[in-house]
From TrEMBL:
Domain of life: Bacteria
Name recorded for this polypeptide: Site-specific integrase
Span of domain Core-binding (CB): 111-184
Keywords: DNA integration, DNA recombination, DNA-binding
Organism the protein comes from: Variovorax guangxiensis
UniProt-listed GO biological process terms: DNA integration; DNA recombination
Any one GO MF annotation of this record: DNA binding
Family that this chain belongs to: Belongs to the 'phage' integrase family.
Domain spans labelled Tyr recombinase: 215-387
Amino acid sequence: MPKIAPELSARAVSALKVEGRHAVGGAHGLHLRIANGHRGWVLRITVGDQRRDLGLGPFPEIGLAEAREKARDVHKLVRQGIDPMITKRAQRSALITRQASEKKFDWCTTEFIRTKSDEWKNVKHRQQWENTLKSYASPHIGHLLVQDIDLQHVLLCLEPIWRTKNETASRLRGRIQSVLDWATVCKYRSGDNPARWKGHLDKVLPAPTKIQKVQHHPAVAIDDMPSFILALRQRDGMAALALQFAILTAARSGEVRGAVWTEIDMEARAWTVPGPRMKAKREHRVPLSDAAIELLKKLPRIKDVNLVFPGANNQALSDMSLTAVMRRMEIMAVPHGFRSTFRDWAGDRTEYPRDLAELALAHILESKTEEAYRRGDALERRRDMMSAWAKFIGCTGSITRENREALDE
């Protein structure tokens, strides 16, 4: 029969100073171990045919009464055929796993942006994501575990700006949804996404189309294009030439400003914009009218500079350079608006098919079936349309004295 240690009092236990193991009684195998100035509880137990020491915590943080209670609980588990060491390791593993999966929204935002930003076009796009979530989401839900975020938390972010800044709020909703979707895939949360719109937020928030005023890019009217082009052609500077080329090709400002001579095939009379520089990330061929070819031939070619429209220090023109030309001309419109003017002209003043104009603008066709069956890009048909556009706006021939006099009038 094992020897039963006498039960020491709390004062007696506190008085123990000699290094080694001291049986304290009150629970079989319970000892206070003293080593190198550290004092802690150890329970010697036999599990099956194995004898083990199980730590129960430090002294005096864990007092004598609590240590005896813990020791009795361990003995009870052993009598039930449960290995307390395995149970302890399982509990520790579960704790570590739970801690690893408990992530706050701000942390998930940072990680989501880090992993996805390589897909985005530029640094500015990443900054927009960071700024929107930091300004409107982080103050409300940044400190919350993503697993706890629900409808009321998302509404805290959206409702203050949903009616006054709906475009920003709509982007915010989509970005919160993306972060929470990412967190779900990473097993940091489960269940439906509380930021989803269809069948969820659309039931508690008014539709953006009902409260958002659509603001189109200010554009020059169709009938004002000939006089505008006449004035533009008399302006000096690379930005004015780039703007003229953008109008002739119905291209976006960024595509024109980034154009390089290696993309231009003068013999084939085509400009091929590579996919990475296009909004839709698809290569786009642009037919060059006679007026566009004539403009390109007049451009200076600078040694070791591949840009078609180089700006200061032979760098690309800034994104405001074309807008500045229009401001100096006192035109209340923006460069992007000429794409709208071209589309209105093609639809209202010509018999060219709708999809041809959409191809000229490098728009993705809405009909997936139509897009799947269209293998070509109708380059030659679009060439005829762009030539008609150049003729309509008056970009053919040279500027005559009569032109200038008409402009002065």
